[in-house]
Amino acid sequence: MTSLGRASLLIGAGTVVSRLTGFLRAIVLVSAVGATTEAGNAFAIANQLPNNIYAIISTGLLSAVVVPQIVKAAAHDDGGRAFVSKLFTLGTVALLAVTVLATAAAPLLVQLYAPGFPPEQQALATAFAYWCLPQILFYGLYALVGESLNARGVYGPFTWAPIVNNVVSIAGFGAFIVLFGSISAVDSWTPEMIAVLAGTATLGIVVQAGILFAFWRRTGLQVRPDFRWRGVGLDQIGRLAGWTFLMVVVGQLAGLVQSRVLSDAAQLYPGVMVSQNAWLLFMLPYSIIVLSIGTPFFTRLSQHAAAGRDDDVRADIIRSIRILGLFVVAATAALAVAAVPASRIFTGSTDEAVAAAGVLLCFLVCLIPLAVLFVVQRTFYAYDDTRTPFFFTLLQAALVAATALGAQAALNAGVLGIEHLAAAIALGQALASTVQVIIATILLHRRLGGIGVRAWLTALGRFVIAAVPAAAAGWGVFLLLGGTGGWTTADKLLGALGAGIIGSVVLVVYVGVLALMRAPELAPAAGMLRRFLPRG
Fold first, then answer.
1. Could you tell me if 270 and 356 are in contact, meaning their C-beta atoms sit under 8 angstroms apart?
2. How many CB atoms lie within 10 A of CB 485?
3. Angstrom distance (rounded) from CA 209 to CA 101
4. How far apart are CA 37 and CA 44, in angstroms?
């Protein structure tokens, strides 16, 4: 099996390339439909619908339930072949049924998620949705095969496959611009335009899922259709997935409330498209750092939990949070001070970038807490406990919905301007997630009789102290480069370059300060990276 360090680097490298190509995809998409336009927000809503289902499948049922169960099934006499065959058959049938029903309900889904859109904009979003919703089937297959590969220690393909999806989308969106130019008004769209844009998005997901099947033989499993869904533990998955399903449903309901409120910003101001791109920037460090390092840890943590080695589980928790925190705190500081030039990558003007940066900054409030939540929540999953995560996620979802509705009430009362609506919703989500992490940590601490909270909180505090002068240095560089009126906000490419320069300064100062503080986490982190350098 791939070592933890090598697996982390493999996942991290793939994630970096995937995110960079994903950025390019978003840039080309914004060039085609705009960031705050009617067409841009219509497409954002339509393409969000299959992604919502994917969130249920991937971050809910599969990562929470399937990985631990496949790890346990490896001990069966047949190595888990019967279990995986039944699982894949059931999953494919369920995915196909959900895809058909969702596509048929496209008009209702669009109206449900975007009631603030005018009728013409809703009609365009519905036309996009008919092309986008079939992505559900292929997103699901991608998640099912990918998580199965992860459970068998084959980490690379799941991370690298989205790169091909991005390449397909970039080519298709680029072809759209060549054929039709930039189209922002809803009354300018033809069926051919809709087919090229939305069809490209779906084709990319089809290719992404298909690539994973080429790597399946590395698992050593032979999967055949098997409709006899009894006898190898699928009932256990059903019990575990019940709570997980409810947990993800309440999360999606909270997201639905956010989307409905955000649809009031149908055009001209930061809305659905701007929020999605701000979230894309937010997820860059989360994906590169948390997923690449945390995913291999989760597989090993699941093995320790299954064997009843609680002391090893506690050691995994402390080590993973400290290593994740080292990188995540630096990323938070860098992205915060480079928020405006980074946001310029996905916007059409400096003013749009400044407005979008406010949304990004509000999301960043919860980046460090979410890194902790990744470890804490998955520790519950490793012990086959999906009930407890449901309750602390229910609290988070309630707070997300309440803050979104509060922002809408403030908007209607004239207290909040519509230009700040997206930022207010993002801040509400960040605060709700922070409360969720606190509650989850307390519950896990009680369950395991301690999870080394003092040790990793002390480490996080040390990282934050180091990040303060690092962020100040980065902000000084931003001002020296002209601030919001400088060259870093002149266009998309210069925004990316400026963000890279500012982020590099933050990182250098951050590491320097930690070295002066003799932070013990630097050595294992450096060793993890040095192991994969040439001759390392």
1. yes
2. 9
3. 21
4. 11
Confidence of residue 51 (pLDDT cuts 50, 70, 90): confident
CA distance 399 to 416: 19
DSSP 308: T
The H helix count followed by the E strand count for the chain is 21, 0
Please state, for a pLDDT cut of 90, what percent of the chain lies above it: 51
Rounded CA separation 281/335 (Å): 8
Count Cα atoms within 13 angstroms, Cβ side, for 283. Answer: 13
Query: In angstroms, rounded to a whole number, what is the distance separating the alpha carbons of residues 412 and 273?
Result: 22
Q: Is 384 left (phi over 0), alpha (psi -120 to 50) or beta?
A: left
Give the number of residues written for the chain: 536
Task: Identify whether the C-beta of residue 46 lies closer than 8 Å to the C-beta of residue 129.
Answer: yes
Q: Which two tokens stand for residue 420?
A: 């700040």
**CB neighbour list of residue 531: distance below 8 Å, 6 or more residues apart:** 5, 6, 9
Q: Write down the domain spans for the chain.
A: 1-232
Predicted TM-score (pTM) above 0.85: no
Give, in order, the Cα–Cα distances in Å from 323 to each of 196, 292, 448, 521. 44, 12, 21, 7
